[in-house]
Backbone:
């Protein structure tokens, strides 16, 4: 098991190298001359030359790359022009907000999509099956920023059930003492249930927005893989042996059908991390996505590059985790590897 | 050789008839596909003549009629500058459609050709193309698109380019797989033995066979391309106000949602949703016709 994990870790290395090369290229193809840009609007030719020298832009490209990698190794992603703080500090302070939102959205979506997919496959051709198909097609067609706004209109403006879409916590509350950075967990750890309720009520709408978006691929995959499994010989045998349909579906089929679904999670995360940016903008969520958007609009490039790199590294790590999880769930993968 | 060509001709015309019959069957069985073909035509018409048939100029503002709810005079209401939302939604079709089509055609040319070459030649071509595709796939795609637009500059052309780049792996992989399974096929061997060069085989034997599958791929990714472009303009990239474009119009109406003027964001958002829905259904329908094995 451990050697397999190590082997899989080794395959991450070329991917990471590729990611670093791409982000390096993105920093070096800035429109015009980065030195002119960083020197500011009142720059003289001398000051531009000086900036170019201090940024190392007068060196050959391979040397610039080495320097870039060196900076990354020291955790130096440059400074944000807007706040003046190091990009790494800005990103790490906002990461828990984004992570809490994304994981919460994924949790809701799995809680709905997996039972829906299973029921659709077991009762093929029933209304549940049709609902599943409609959800699967509609879900991928929904612009996530649009569903978010619709939910805000219905649940905040019309019904008044949800709080105003302005961040993680209402202004009347103070953030719980930081342990994990997840308000839901931290407020429980502090024993403050009022605060838990408040942060949950802020989290529900953006969470549901993300869930609606990621529901489709999970439900579709669950249905398809359940159908394949239900048509297999061992299910027929189990049925012939007179096992109850509950045992067949839950014990025999479900566990085998989950394997392709776990693989799909990788793709779902790619969508979720992107959709996260849009949802954060709609709900004024103080995560890394809205931070990157603000920086983008202000032409503040260092945070954007840092954000792209962070997201890519996180995504690679998530895929690695999914693969390892796959090995845990399916012993056959371990034997073959 | 003439015999082979003649044979292939009769086979392909028979295949054409069968394809038509199959298409009728698929559409007959699934009326939704027919509906999506109709919607697609409507979108194409709106994209071609939209700006000339709308009742108001999409840019004309009239502050005395700002934020009016939908009425007979303004079907979809007016926005904060008093512009007619119906006219803007219809006029925006052109830009959104153009962005989607151009990016899909671009990735079809780059990704499709690279993938076919990788699958057919193998070796280093394959290694390089696959490595590039893997590297792109290592990023969350929308985030990579943001990074590309930020780096290359905030213009519509770069939105198209970024959308094409993030779709590259999808096209390259499908084209590679399809070219790869045909590499040693009978008709390729026949062409090889008749003295065709590898490049000629690639152009006249492999490409025409991979083409239909790539067209399906194009229609399947059209919806995603529109969503992606609208998402980028929603966060303020690419298209600048006051240009009518669905994503930016939703962004402009976002502030009005909280105060109850739902129509400002609703209609452009709904147009976007319907367009994407239509392209996805159309893609599924086309796939059922061209490649029945992949039906779900």
Residues:
């Amino acid at each position: 098991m451990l050697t397999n994990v190590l082997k899989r870790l080794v395959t991450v290395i070329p991917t990471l190298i590729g990611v670093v090369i791409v982000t390096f290229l993105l920093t070096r193809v800035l429109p015009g001359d980065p030195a002119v840009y960083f020197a500011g609007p009142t720059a003289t030719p001398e000051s531009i030359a000086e900036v170019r020298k201090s940024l190392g832009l007068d060196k050959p490209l391979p040397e610039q790359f080495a320097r870039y990698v060196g900076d990354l190794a020291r955790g130096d992603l440059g400074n944000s022009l807007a706040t003046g703080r190091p990009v790494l500090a800005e990103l790490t302070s906002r990461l828990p907000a984004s992570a809490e939102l994304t994981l919460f959205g994924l949790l809701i979506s799995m809680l709905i999509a997996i039972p829906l997919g299973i029921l659709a496959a077991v009762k093929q051709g029933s209304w549940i099956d049709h609902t599943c198909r409609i959800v699967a097609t509609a879900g991928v067609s929904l612009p996530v920023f649009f569903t978010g706004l619709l939910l805000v209109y219905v649940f905040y403006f019309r019904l008044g059930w949800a709080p105003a879409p302005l961040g993680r916590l209402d202004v009347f509350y103070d953030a719980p003492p930081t342990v994990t950075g997840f308000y839901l967990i931290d407020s429980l750890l502090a024993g403050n249930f009022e605060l838990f309720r408040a942060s949950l009520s802020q989290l529900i709408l953006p969470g549901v927005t993300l869930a609606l978006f990621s529901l489709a691929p999970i439900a579709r995959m669950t249905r398809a893989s359940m159908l394949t499994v239900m048509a297999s010989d061992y299910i027929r045998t189990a049925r012939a042996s007179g096992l109850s349909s509950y045992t067949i579906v839950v014990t025999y089929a479900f566990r085998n059908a989950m394997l392709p679904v776990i693989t799909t999670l990788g793709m779902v995360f790619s969508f979720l991390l992107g959709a996260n940016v849009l949802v954060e903008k709609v709900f004024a969520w103080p995560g890394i996505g809205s931070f990157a958007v603000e920086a983008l609009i202000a032409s503040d490039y260092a945070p954007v590059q840092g954000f792209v790199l962070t997201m890519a590294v996180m995504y690679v790590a998530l895929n690695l985790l999914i693969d390892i999880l796959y090995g845990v769930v399916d012993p056959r993968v371990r034997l073959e590897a | 050789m003439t015999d082979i060509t003649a044979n292939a001709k009769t086979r392909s015309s028979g295949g054409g008839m069968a394809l038509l019959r199959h298409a009728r069957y698929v559409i007959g069985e699934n009326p939704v596909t027919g509906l999506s073909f109709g919607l697609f035509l409507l979108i194409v018409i709106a994209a071609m003549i939209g700006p000339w048939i709308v009742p108001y100029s999409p840019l004309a503002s009239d502050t005395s009629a700002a934020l009016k709810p939908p009425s007979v005079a303004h079907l979809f209401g007016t926005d904060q500058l008093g512009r007619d939302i119906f006219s803007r939604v219809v006029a925006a079709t052109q830009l959104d459609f153009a962005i989607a089509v151009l990016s899909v055609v671009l990735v079809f040319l780059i990704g499709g050709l690279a993938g076919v070459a990788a699958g057919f030649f193998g070796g280093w071509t394959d290694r390089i193309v696959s490595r590039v595709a893997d590297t792109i796939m290592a990023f969350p795609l929308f985030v990579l698109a943001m990074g590309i637009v930020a780096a290359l500059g905030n213009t519509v052309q770069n939105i198209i380019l970024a959308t094409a780049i993030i779709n590259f792996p999808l096209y390259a992989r499908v084209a590679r797989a399809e070219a790869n399974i045909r590499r040693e096929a009978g008709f390729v061997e026949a062409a090889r033995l008749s003295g065709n060069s590898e490049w000629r085989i690639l152009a006249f034997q492999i490409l025409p066979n991979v083409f239909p599958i790539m067209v399906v791929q194009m229609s399947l990714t059209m919806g995603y391309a529109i969503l992606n472009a609208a998402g980028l303009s929603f966060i303020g990239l690419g298209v600048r106000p006051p240009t009518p474009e669905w994503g930016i119009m939703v962004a402009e109406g976002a502030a009005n949602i909280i105060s109850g003027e739902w129509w400002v964001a609703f209609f452009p958002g709904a147009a976007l949703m319907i367009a994407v829905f239509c392209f996805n259904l159309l893609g599924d329908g086309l796939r059922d016709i061209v490649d029945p094995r992949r039906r779900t």
In short: Chain B touches chain A through 51 residues (CB under 8 Å).
